[in-house]
Design a protein that fits this description.
Arc Repressor Mutant, subunit A; 17 strands; three-stranded antiparallel sheet; 2 domains; alpha/beta; 379 residues
């Protein structure tokens, strides 16, 4: 039976970080109550997926900003919808280490099996510039408390390219996380998003931010440090201990179906991609009036599905597996991507063997440029 994932957007944050452009809402009790009620109604109204849902991802925002009882309500609705027993499938909760340590046991009881902890940095100056409300010590204490509560799958996020970040400070954060024995590390290059406080700062003082070459050095450092500590660089932004890869995200990269609920949530089903409205009020009003919250829906034709499958596969360490593409699409990947493979390999961005093609270390740094060449297969 085909598999699917489920993404749920929980948009609430105690405060909005100055670099953030996600669909987020400052936490307020009444707003949260309205949203959870709308979310439960959307979940109940959605037809059951044909595929077997075996991962749930609660993202945001900061899902852990909600009361533990509200997290449990949402998960109870999902488990009932998908006929799943709490704890039987991978269920990730994004968490802010500044608060809610006391909720760890309740999250486990509700069915959360994996935590994604928004550490971002373990350097005090960087945390201040990033607008984070936790200290490095609090982040490490949260990870330790999660272990004590029985979580055996803990991930931590780091930002590469924070204002004032140096190679030494970034390496220090990496080594501290490895020493804390987290199972998974996600590293995201800082993107300056239009309309954010960081965009105004960058326009005023671009020298405050590491340039592209400096960020490339940071990412190379992550490769060295984490590989030396036993992590596999299994996707462009993600490293994991063996067996601790994020199954939900692997589903995205394999183009599996994804059921999605909540404002701004994006899903994919049988070649159709959809996204819900981004506004809190629009989302709640639509659901409350019995209307769909979808803002955009598009059906991908076959060439586009194949091109996007190649782009997603190239993000992973395994790359394009020719046999896999033959099974999934009935195509010869060597032939339909011949020009892109030849060009990228000649530039040292792609390595090719009998199994398929994957990015080189240099190719990972220029992944957007490489992937763009695979979006229009010769079918």
């Amino acid at each position: 039976m085909p598999r699917a994932g489920c993404y749920v957007h929980l948009p609430f944050c105690d405060r909005i970080c100055p670099y953030c452009d996600f669909a987020v809402v400052e936490f307020a009790t009444l707003k949260a109550a309205r949203y959870i009620a709308a979310l439960e109604r959307e979940i109940a109204s959605e037809p059951p997926p044909a595929a077997h849902v075996d991962t749930i991802y609660l993202g945001g925002g900061t899902p852990s900003a909600l009361a533990a009882a509200d997290v449990a309500r949402v998960l109870a609705s999902l488990h009932a919808k998908f006929s799943a027993t709490p704890g039987s499938i991978e269920c990730t909760l994004e968490a802010n280490p500044a608060r809610n340590v006391s909720d760890l046991d309740a999250w486990r009881a509700a069915g959360v099996t994996r935590l994604s902890v928004g550490v971002q940095s373990l350097d005090a100056r960087e945390l201040h510039r990033l607008g984070r409300t936790h200290t490095a010590a609090e982040a490490l204490e949260f990870i330790s408390a999660a272990r004590a509560a029985g979580f055996d799958n803990v991930s931590a996020d780091l930002i590469a390219g924070a204002p004032g970040q140096t190679l030494a400070s970034f390496e220090g954060s990496l080594r501290s996380l490895a020493a804390a024995d987290v199972d998974h590390v996600s590293i995201y290059g800082l993107t300056i998003e239009e309309g954010t406080p960081y965009a105004a700062w960058h326009a005023r003082e671009p020298s405050a931010f590491p340039d592209d070459d400096a960020v490339a050095d940071l990412l190379a450092c992550a490769d060295d440090v984490l590989a030396g500590a036993g992590y596999r660089h299994y996707e462009i932004s993600n490293f994991a201990r063996p067996g601790r890869e994020c199954a939900h995200n692997i589903g995205y990269w394999r183009q599996d179906d994804c059921v999605a609920f909540g404002m701004s949530a994006s899903g994919y089903r049988a070649g159709e991609r959809f996204t819900n409205v981004r506004s809190y009020d629009e989302y709640c009003s639509a659901i409350e009036s019995g209307r769909s919250a979808r803002a955009v829906s598009e059906r991908l034709d076959f060439p586009r599905r194949v091109g996007e499958a190649a782009m997603l596969a190239l993000r992973t360490a395994d790359g394009i597996d020719d046999d896999d593409f033959r099974r999934r699409f009935g195509i010869d990947a060597k032939a339909v991507f011949a020009a892109a493979r030849k060009n990228c390999a000649a530039a040292g961005l792609l390595e090719i063997d009998r199994a398929g093609a994957r990015l080189t270390p240099r190719g990972r740094l220029l992944a957007n440029e490489v992937c763009a060449q695979f979006l229009e297969p010769s079918l």
